[in-house]
């Protein structure tokens, strides 16, 4: 059985950072060029050739270095094995931003071991910021420790959220939640990338975040980084989550107050 000791975790994190910076450089070079863009399940759910190439680069590294591991990747490079290790990859979180040349997007890479996210890295090419965490060892931005805010008052809280791609055809569209929360808080930010929004919660820039219908690749790394920054990440029942679709993140106080309002 493959062990995941301290030394190995550090080595894997180092590789993960290197891969995310490699594709980050490529994405920065390509964002203002003429790239092909396709729609996926709904006309507003997009994928660019840069998403696909970036995912290929990352998953090829994983297949080379950890051929027995499973991979869950947003586009088309998933691979199921009976390994206790599973990589969760979003090559570009914030694809619509990227496709519109709006420069806030990021690479999100997480490693799950026995169903728990143990290592997470989110690289933001435009700002050259890399957010990392190893379970039990704190969260960092470019190697410096980060902490969630100590905001106590929802009235003053800055929260982030987003809306699902099927919102034009589904009543479960987060609009009622938005309408309710906007009356109760200091401000809302809709950045268009859950991974980036979770890093800003971990860094104490945003006081909280909630969103529904999330995919594991959008949030797996971000939820670990928020937890290791002293935050709480739960579903609407207040149960701690790894990568479930309904996500509520913040310091303990704000997390519980968001649940109060939305449940
Ligand atoms: C996006 C998320 C965002 C959400 C979008 C989409 P993508 O992920 O990061 O929070 O509101 O609907 O799911 O598609 O850019 O990887």
Q: What is the overall pLDDT average?
A: 97
Helix percentage range:
25-40%
Q: What molecules are bound to this protein?
A: L-MYO-inositol-1-phosphate
- Give me the strand/helix succession: HEEHEEHEEEEEEHEHEHEEH
According to DSSP, the number of beta strands is 14
Biggest pleated-sheet summary = 7 strands, mixed
Distance between the termini: 42 Å
Class based on secondary structure composition and strand pairing:
alpha+beta
Trace the largest sheet across and list its strands: 3-4-5-6-7-8-9
- What Rg, in angstroms, do the CA atoms define? 17 Å
Coarse morphology: globular
Low-pLDDT residue intervals, each spanning 5 or more residues = none
The helix tally amounts to: 7
Fraction in beta strands: 15-25%
Structural overview:
The chain contains 7 helices and 14 strands. The N and C termini lie far apart (42 Å). The model has no long low-confidence stretch (mean pLDDT 97). 45% of the residues are buried. By secondary structure, the protein is of the alpha+beta class. It is 33% helix and 24% strand. The strands form 3 sheets. The protein has a 7-stranded mixed beta sheet with strand order 3-4-5-6-7-8-9, with helices on both faces. Strands 11-10-12-14-13 form a 5-stranded mixed beta sheet, sandwiched between helices. It has a two-stranded antiparallel ribbon with strand order 1-2. It is globular, with a radius of gyration of 17 Å. The protein has helices at residues 6-30, 49-65, 95-99, 175-182, 194-202, 216-228, 252-262, and strands spanning 37-39, 46-48, 70-73, 85-93, 106-113, 116-124, 129-134, 139-141, 144-145, 158-160, 187-189, 208-211, 232-234, 247-250. Bound molecules: L-MYO-inositol-1-phosphate. Residues 74, 90, 93-95, 162-165, 192-194, 211, 218 line the site of L-MYO-inositol-1-phosphate.
């Amino acid at each position: 059985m493959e062990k995941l000791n301290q030394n190995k975790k550090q080595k894997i994190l180092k590789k993960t950072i290197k891969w995310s910076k490699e594709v980050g450089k490529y994405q920065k070079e390509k964002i203002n060029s003429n790239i092909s863009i396709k729609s996926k399940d709904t006309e507003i759910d997009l994928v660019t050739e840069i998403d696909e190439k970036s995912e290929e680069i990352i998953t090829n590294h994983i297949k080379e270095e950890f051929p027995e591991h499973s991979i869950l990747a947003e586009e088309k490079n998933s691979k199921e094995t009976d390994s206790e290790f599973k990589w969760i990859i979003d090559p570009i979180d914030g694809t619509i931003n990227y496709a519109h040349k709006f420069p806030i997007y990021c690479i999100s890479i997480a490693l799950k071991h026995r169903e728990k996210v143990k290592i997470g890295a989110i690289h933001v090419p435009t700002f050259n910021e890399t957010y990392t965490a190893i379970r039990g060892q704190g969260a960092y931005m470019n190697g410096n420790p980060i902490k969630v805010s100590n905001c106590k008052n929802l009235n003053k809280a800055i929260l982030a959220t987003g809306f699902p791609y099927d919102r034009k055809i589904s009543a479960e569209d987060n609009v009622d939640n938005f309408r309710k929360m906007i009356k109760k808080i200091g401000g809302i930010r809709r950045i268009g990338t859950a991974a980036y929004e979770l890093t800003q919660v971990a860094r104490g820039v945003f006081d909280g975040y909630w969103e529904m219908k999330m995919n594991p690749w959008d949030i797996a790394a971000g939820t670990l980084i928020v937890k290791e920054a002293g935050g709480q990440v739960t579903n609407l029942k207040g149960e701690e989550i790894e990568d479930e679709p309904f996500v509520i993140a913040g310091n303990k106080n704000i997390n519980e107050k968001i649940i109060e309002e939305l449940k």
